[in-house]
Write a structure and sequence with these properties.
- There is one protein chain.
- With about 450 residues, the protein is α+β, with helices and mostly antiparallel strands.
- Among the domains are: about 140 residues, no CATH class; about 140 residues, Histidine kinase-like ATPase, C-terminal domain (Heat Shock Protein 90, 2-Layer Sandwich), CATH 3.30.565.
- Helix content is about 55%, strand content about 15%.
- The strands form three sheets. It has a five-stranded mixed β-sheet. Strands 2-1-4-3 form a four-stranded antiparallel β-sheet, with helices on one face.
- Strand 8 and strand 9 form a beta hairpin.
- The longest helix is centred in the middle third of the chain and has 64 residues.
- The radius of gyration is 57 Å and the shape is elongated.
- Pfam families: HATPase_c, HisKA_2.
- It comes from Alkalispirochaeta sphaeroplastigenens.
Length: about 450
Amino acid sequence: MMKKKPLSLAVQYLIVVVVASVFFSAVVMAWQVRTLYQRGLVERETLLETLEESYLPLISSRLFFFDDAELELLLQGLVLLPYLEYVAVLEIQGEESLPVLERGREPPSGGRRDAFPLVHRFDQEDRLIGELQVITSLEGLREMLLRQTSAIAVASAVQIFGFALVVFFAARGLVFQPLRKISGFLHTLDPAKPAGRKLELPRAPWERRFPDELDEIVRALNALISRTDEAILSLEQTRDTLEATLEEKQSLLQELYHRTRNTLQSLRAILNLRAARVRDNREFQEAVRDVDNQILAMALAQQALYESQHLSRIGIAPYFRKLLAEVLKSHGLSGFQDRIVLEIAPVSLLIDTALPCGTMLVELVSNALKHAFPGTEPGTILIRLEELGDSLLRLTVADTGVGVGPDFDWRRTGTTGFETLRAIGEQQLQGRVSFAGTGGVRWDIVFSTRGYTERVNHG
């Protein structure tokens, strides 16, 4: 979706000025038109009052004395008055009113009709001798107002246009161009890098003598930019120092892991040399082999850390595969590899959790290799590590061997291997160890990965 180009503040300001000017001009014009129209209504009422007070007696007298010439002159004078379009004199003869004289014309819009009685006093008595009918209209006033309104509208449009241009260019130079300069400068800033320069507005000498709000904004921005540059430079120096320190610590840790692995390998070599001198004691040989495999689990974990980019976690699947290969080799059963089923979730564990898992795996697999398949009986060993959710894992080691009797209680055997298994699974990892011995042996150890916190960040 295309990003809409923002409407310039100057254009918005110009639109506001024009709309406001048009609005106020329209209000003023409407007020003027209303005032003129109200004045016309008042003038018409005044005309009718004057007609009734001044003209009616004269018209009544001329009608009574049958002075048609004078009566015609009066009517011709009346139709020349403003707003009066038509006049007619009617004479009452019996029950009827007969037209005597009329002047003017009836307006198309109809206008306002008024009738005035013509009364003449004769022999101390007022006699009704006729009627004066008049039609007044404001049509002329409306036409005049329309002409005036058109002229005012044209003049106002010219004034508004000129005023808007003056205001626009004044605001453009004083406000909008400096704001655009500020906006453009801010868009060039990179929050991750120091600016290295200050914002300056193009100002005339007289403008510099009288700083305004924009100059205050620029001064505040420059102060903020200066402090930000100092903070960025300080952060860069701190980052460089921390990176150098971290790199040094990582190198030291890798060297420590390397030396630990070599030390464990040396310890294994010493054990094997001592065991080689006592070949006739099988129980001693098996004990040394078990200890050697436990040391092997530690050595392989240290090697995985040394080879990993991460200094506190190792991938559990490759670690288990290497460990199983070495355990089978130590038992002289490298060909048994095809009878082991591995189902390992692709997880990485902290070394504090992975190493106890490796120790338990060595103990359980070694126990299965020793006792599950006496003679040449076929069978398989299942090794599974699965995620249960909520940071829980379950390690399963199960064989299809001969199993044990129903009365077997692994917690009461007192053997070193089972005691080690219980201590690691239930105490060190704070987990739960389950055992089943019918139709083969099955071990399930459920534990949490939250028991330890990461002490070394990723390199």
